[in-house]
Amino acid sequence: MLSSSLLLILTACQPAERENADLVFRYNEAAGISSLDPAFARNLSNIWAVSQLFNGLVELNDQMVVQPSLAKRWEIDEDGTLYRFFLRQDVRFHHDLSFSGSMGRPIRASDFIYSFGRIADPQTASPGAWVFNEVARRADGKLQIEAPNDSVLEIRLNRPFPPFLGILTMPYCALVMPEAVRELGQDYRRQPIGTGPFRFQYWKEGVKLVLRRNPFYFEEEDGQRLPYLEAVSISFIIDKQAAFLEFLKGKLDFMSGIDPSYKDELLTPEGELNAAYTAQIRLTTQPYLNTEYLGFMLNPASLDKGAFAVTDKKIRQAINYGFDRAKMIRFLRNNMGSPGTGGIIPRGLPGADTLGRIGYGYDPKQARRLLEEAGYPEGQGLPEITLSTTAEYLDVNKFIQHELSRIGIKLKMDVNPPAALKELKARAKLPFFRASWIADYPDAENYLSLFHSANFCPDGPNYAHYASQQFDELYAAAMKEADAARRAEIYYKMDSLVMEDAPVVILYYDEVMRFTGKNIRGLGSNPINQLNLKRVYKVRD
């Protein structure tokens, strides 16, 4: 139960409008939270909670620029393989009398050796183990990371890897308290001890999660210690329509994204906030580094017997040409997002196709011509193709199904629970599947890694089992290129090659949509939809 201290107002040293602030920020997480351990921060719901509790060496700001966090500065040697971080001296773990006394012990560089080694250890079974793939290994298989003293950390890479600093901003790379993890074991998932602006208070799974203000947090703003909020309260209402009604009643402060159940109630066809809600709600939008797409499994041997794999490039290209993405965005998403007429790299990252030169527009005549060249005029003789999706995206996929039927391509919908779809996709068991990729770090390599032959699932994110020697050679060249502009040129060539081979169908580039009450202040946003609450405060209406 929340204590009465949550009703206290902020101290008088705050700006005047903050003095009357309510101190609890409330949001709903329909998808649930499975773990508060950074080792398992693989989805947005876990990431948002973990990000309030933990810090890493570095972090991203709203402009996607890497900033200091627990490291106050860093150096990279000339050959790009040695990263040296100089740690802050004023950071302590959350206080827990079982491990660290009333204030929490200071952090040490050796804590990072433990934290990173734990992610890379196969026994941890972290889905984020791949983030340290480029770190050199010792003869015993451990990461080549040194702590010359308590305030200096050195990380040695196998080869130059320009995206590495961005990778270190991911929650997988957060600092955990070694003695707490050792003592708690698997219970650390629900009893986390970090260094973040909020500390763990209470969690009844599926009902309520409460985080409390960390009174010893190291960051300040305008001479005042962050965060401004006293607590964060997270509910787990599964029904998104019910959660929306709670938001309208003022019982939630924030919603991200929009569900078809209330889309037309809240937004105009042009994607603006309906006039009935402008006095009550604030809508903020920006491009989202999230590419929504359909993927083909190009390796028939992995599929179950009888499944039809679309191994003919001409058929895949025909599907790409066979539906109107702009119409789909306009009518099914109220113009929230932009049509996927470019490559896999979303706009906003260097290397992206901003002019639609390498992707696919709506061209049914070209689609029919390609089908005829493939030996299936008007689709005659072409087997039915099974498209696996989830209920949330069924409207979009039914639109594509209808559009493709007009040129002779028959799709069969296979609706799965999200977890089941993810598992089948990772095991290469789906011939044609809905997917999306949200940037883990601000580098186009993150998207192009989906097509590197070394990343075949289940060991990596190449869910299509796409393989191209030319692509792999370009990938290797990009990783050796220190100049960002020249590296972006290589990325563009790689994206062009992928789109020509068409292992995917780009649907649209998403948009961050945030709905807040008019009393919320200080809630920023960035293109990967991070939730940063350390500067948030509330004012009375």
In terms of topology, how is this protein built?
Blueprint: E1 24-28, H1 44-53, E2 58-60, E3 66-68, E4 71-76, E5 82-87, H2 109-120, E6 145-149, E7 152-156, H3 164-167, H4 178-184, E8 198-204, E9 208-213, E10 220-221, E11 224-225, E12 231-235, H5 240-248, E13 254-256, H6 263-266, E14 281-296, H7 313-321, H8 325-332, E15 338-339, H9 364-373, E16 385-389, H10 394-405, E17 411-415, H11 418-426, E18 432-438, H12 445-448, H13 469-480, H14 484-501, E19 504-517, E20 520-521, E21 537-538
Parallel strand pairs: 1-12, 16-17
Antiparallel strand pairs: 2-3, 4-5, 5-7, 6-7, 8-9, 9-12, 10-11, 13-19, 14-18, 14-19, 15-19, 20-21
Helix pairs in contact: 7-9, 13-14
Structure description:
Helix 7 (about 315-320) runs antiparallel to helix 9 (about 365-375) and helix 13 (about 470-480) packs antiparallel against helix 14. Helices cover about 25% and strands about 20% of the residues. Mean pLDDT is about 90; it is low at about 1-20. It has helices spanning about 45-55, 110-120, 165, 180-185, 240-250, 265, 315-320, 325-330, 365-375, 395-405, 420-425, 445-450, 470-480, 485-500; strands at about 25-30, 60, 65-70, 70-75, 80-85, 145-150, 150-155, 200-205, 210-215, 220, 225, 230-235, 255, 280-295, 340, 385-390, 410-415, 430-440, 505-515, 520, 535-540. The chain is globular, with a radius of gyration of 24 Å. Strand 8 and strand 9 form a beta hairpin. The chain is of the alpha+beta class. The protein starts with about 25 loop residues before the first strand and ends with a strand. The strands form seven sheets. Strands 13, 14, 15, 18 and 19 form a five-stranded antiparallel β-sheet that branches. It has a four-stranded mixed β-sheet with strand order 1-12-9-8, with no helix packed on it. It folds into two domains: about 5-235 and about 520-540, D-Maltodextrin-Binding Protein, domain 2 (3-Layer(aba) Sandwich); about 290-510, Roll (Dipeptide-binding Protein, domain 3). The protein contains 14 helices and 21 strands. The longest helix has 18 residues, at about 485-500.
